[in-house]
Every structure is written in structure tokens, then in C-alpha cells.
Amino acid sequence: MLTIENYLDSHYIHRSNWLRAAVLGANDGIISISSLAIGVAAASASREPIVLATVAGLVAGALSMAAGEYVSVSSQTDTEQADIKREIEELREMPDEELKILAQIYEKRGLKKETAMQVALELTEHDVLAAHVRDELGINEISQANPIQAALASGASFIAGGILPLLVVFFAPVSGMEYWLYTFTIISLVILGIISAKTGGSSIGKAVLRITIWGTIAMVLSALVGYLFGVNL
Q1: How confident is the model at residue 159 (pLDDT cuts 50, 70, 90)?
Q2: Is residue 16's pLDDT more than 60?
Q3: Residue 177 pLDDT greater than 70, yes or no
């Protein structure tokens, strides 16, 4: 039975925060580690330097992604909390002006002036802070991200993505490893694009095209750097 409590369960927007972090982490893990391995492989005649660089990049990248995501989301949360605190002060110091602003917001959304004021009055009586935080500041439960959740999703997905090219580095022939890495990475990116598109309800074609184009650019440039500036190790 469809109710207001389960209405959003079949929608995709409530997945946006963790899905963004997970896709970003996996995509970065695949492309970064593959590009690093390709760059070193282009300048190396043995497997050991490639393995060392790939493992080091995997560990450093996962920690960097997790820390960066945590700091980024925490900063966003701090900004939202500061705005909420400011809104509390404004509601205390000038409630009438805040009521008019709320009514104007509803009026701009299409309500008649009298209806907009009535809606603003009723929502103010119900929960004045929630009404202003949601409709004036645009902060709601769906848009709010959890720093720990985002950090874990980003770091874990980076490792999951980075392990794929690491396996190629371990088992593919050193001669021509760049081509093995590129082929395997493109396949991985296509799969990631399909999964992210299905999970987020977006176009599979656009997701796959977007992720493979940028992945190819990154790997080609990394290989070029390896060929131009590398030395046999």
C-alpha cells in the first residue's frame, strides 16, 4: 500500500549522496590506478616497479579519497548548521519579516498571495524552523549527507575499483601490459557505468560514454608521460 512514509522508496533521489561517493570512488580507483600502472609500465621492463607503484597508489588513493570525502561533506554540514543557527536568530529577532519571506517563496512557486500567506502561517504554527530550513534554505533530510557514510563509501569503492587493475598488473605479461590494462579498464568502466546508471535510474548510454571517454583520456596521457619521460627500470 502506497503511503507518505514509503512513497520515496521506489525513487532514486534518496540514493544520490552515497551513490555519488561510491561511483566517484570506484571510477577514481579504476582510472587512477590503471593510469598509474600504465605510466610506470610504459617506462619499465620488469614487473616489480609496476606492482610497487600500483599498491602504493591503491593505499594512498583510498585513504585520500576517504579523508577528502569526509572533510568535504563535513564542511558542507558545518555550513548548513551555521545557516540553521543564523535562521534561528532571524526568526527570534524579526519573525514578521521571516513570515513574509516564507509567503513570498510560496507565491513564487505558483500560489496566490492570500493562499501563500495562509500556507506560511499554518507551517509556521506547526514547525517554524523546519519550514524555513526546508523552503528558505533548501535543506532537507534527502539532501543532507553523512560524512562517515560518504567517507566509507568513497574509500571502499576506490579499493574495489583499484583492485581490478592491480590484478592485471599481477597476472598480465609485462610486455604489452599497457594494452592489457587499457582493455581491462575500459571493460570495468563500462560495467561501472551500467551499474551506476541502473542504480541511479539514468541513461545507460550516456553514463557509459561519459565514463569511458574520460577514462581513455586519462590513460592515454599517462602512457604518453611514461613513454616521454620514463626510463627503463
Answers
A1: very high
A2: no
A3: yes
Report d(CA 31, CA 10) in Å as an integer. 32
Q: Please provide the DSSP assignment of the chain as one string.
A: ---TTTGGGGSSGGGHHHHHHHHHHHHHHHHHHHHHHHHHHTT-SSSHHHHHHHHHHHHHHHHHHHHHHHHHHHHHHHHHHHHHHHHHHHHHH-HHHHHHHHHHHHHHTT--HHHHHHHHHHHHHHHHHHHHHHHTS---TTT---HHHHHHHHHHHHHHHHHHHHHHHHHS-STTHHHHHHHHHHHHHHHHHHHHHHHHT--HHHHHHHHHHHHHHHHHHHHHHHHHH----
